[in-house]
């Protein structure tokens, strides 16, 4: 049973509609879809990251639909208008583990009346979900495109003991901390949700600093997982030890004239994000980080140790995105062994982390070329 929903239609491009899909692994999932007029079209599933929504795909969905695809982008567990998840820090954390997020997407495919999709396409944290979908159920997710977050493969069955990177970061002459472990703390949600500048301005500064508009984004390969190397990254990844994320990005708040010139995220579009996060807070998305940084929860992925993604694969990142380098060696591992049928690895000029929003035309061209070769 589905329900059509009037989702801020003035901010949705022509040809995209919003509705709810019931009974998806315990969720009522809010989706955006394009190309829905023909039930026989090949299907593409688009998965967003943090702090984003299904709405982050609005610029590529009409292009993909015009090429003959039925395109579906859900608000994933913990995000937007999807309901049925636990927002309590002390609540049901394991429902946000990667295996269950993958099950969410399998259940959504079935709820849409499909047995498979032609490709699953993920950005940021959604890239990790897309990779797991393709790794575990290649019969359902028959190709995969990853964006901004390289996939280095499942964890080894006997992981090596690593030095305490957090103690090493804190011991630097300029004490630092890793953003993923900060995002796993109890106070992170309140820091961002109730920040002095407000959710809208927080997101404006956060999106700006991780985009190509912030001229200090000049990524390069790091030599290893050491404090000294990680500290070379911007503070939105390796934070100053005494600052929260809202305090970290506030000094980079773009000037009014920069906001007015931001073609890829004008104020009316940013209001969609700030409205949803202002209503929900950030804890739903932060639960994903907590599962990733919890060694006991993430250990179950060792079940797939040694396996590669064997379906056709594509990677797209932004040339000015540190996300491609934040895990030293990951982008190389993805191309060498994690994805056995890698069809291309592209860094798009003029894009930072939000590649499909900053450069949607280039991203759409790369996706359509990839899809045409399947």
In short:
35% of the residues lie in helices and 16% in strands. The protein is an alpha/beta fold and 374 residues long.
Walk me through what this model shows.
This protein has 374 residues and is of the alpha/beta class. The chain folds into two domains: 2-158 and 298-372, Rossmann fold; 165-285, no CATH class. Helix content is 35%, strand content 16%. The chain contains 16 helices and eleven strands. The strands form two sheets. The chain has a nine-stranded mixed β-sheet, sandwiched between helices. The protein has a two-stranded antiparallel ribbon with strand order 8-9. α2 (98-111) crosses α3 and α7 packs across α11. The longest helix has 14 residues, at 98-111. The mean pLDDT is 96.
Q: In oligomeric terms, what are we looking at?
A: single chain
CATH architecture descriptor of the largest domain: 3-Layer(aba) Sandwich
Q: Provide the CATH top-level class of the largest domain.
A: Alpha Beta
- Number of folding domains? 2
Tell me the radius of gyration.
19 Å
What is the strand arrangement across the widest sheet? 1-2-3-5-4-6-7-10-11
Structural class by SSE content? alpha/beta
Helix content: 25-40%
Taken from the alpha-carbon principal axes, the silhouette is globular
Distance between the termini: 32 Å
Largest sheet: 9 strands, mixed
Counting H and I runs of at least 4 residues, what is the number of helices?
16
Average of pLDDT: 96
């Amino acid at each position: 049973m589905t329900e059509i929903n009037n989702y801020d239609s003035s901010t949705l491009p022509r040809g995209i509609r919003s509705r709810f899909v019931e009974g998806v692994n315990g969720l009522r999932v809010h989706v955006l879809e394009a190309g829905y007029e023909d039930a026989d079209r090949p299907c593409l599933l688009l998965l967003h990251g943090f702090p984003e929504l299904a709405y982050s795909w609005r610029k590529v969905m009409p292009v993909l639909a015009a090429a003959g695809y039925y395109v579906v982008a859900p608000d994933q567990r913990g995000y937007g208008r999807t309901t049925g998840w636990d927002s309590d820090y002390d609540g049901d954390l394991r429902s946000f583990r990667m295996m269950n997020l993958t099950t969410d997407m399998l259940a959504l495919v079935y709820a849409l009346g499909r047995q498979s999709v032609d490709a699953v396409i993920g950005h940021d944290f959604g890239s990790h979900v897309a990779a797991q979908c393709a790794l575990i159920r290649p019969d359902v997710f028959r190709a995969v495109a990853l964006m901004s977050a390289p996939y280095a493969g499942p964890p080894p069955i006997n992981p090596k003991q690593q030095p305490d990177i957090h103690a090493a970061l804190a011991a630097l002459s300029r004490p630092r901390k890793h953003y993923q472990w900060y995002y796993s703390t109890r106070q992170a949600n309140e820091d961002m949700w109730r920040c002095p500048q407000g959710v809208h301005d927080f997101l404006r500064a956060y999106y700006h600093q991780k985009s190509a508009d912030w001229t200090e984004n000049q990524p390069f390969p790091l030599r290893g997982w050491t404090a000294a190397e990680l500290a070379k990254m911007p503070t939105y990844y390796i934070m100053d030890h005494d600052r929260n994320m809202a305090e970290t990005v506030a000094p980079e708040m773009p000037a009014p004239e920069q906001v007015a010139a931001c073609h890829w995220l004008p104020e009316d579009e940013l209001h969609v994000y700030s409205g949803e996060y202002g209503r929900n807070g950030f804890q739903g998305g932060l639960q994903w980080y907590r599962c990733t940084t919890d060694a006991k929860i993430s250990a179950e992925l060792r079940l797939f140790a040694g396996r590669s993604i064997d379906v056709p694969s594509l990677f797209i990142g932004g040339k000015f995105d540190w996300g491609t380098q934040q895990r030293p060696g990951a982008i190389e591992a993805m191309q060498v062994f994690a994805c056995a049928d890698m069809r291309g690895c592209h860094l798009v000029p003029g894009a930072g982390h939000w590649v499909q929003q900053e450069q949607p035309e280039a991203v759409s061209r790369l996706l359509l070329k990839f899809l045409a070769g399947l």
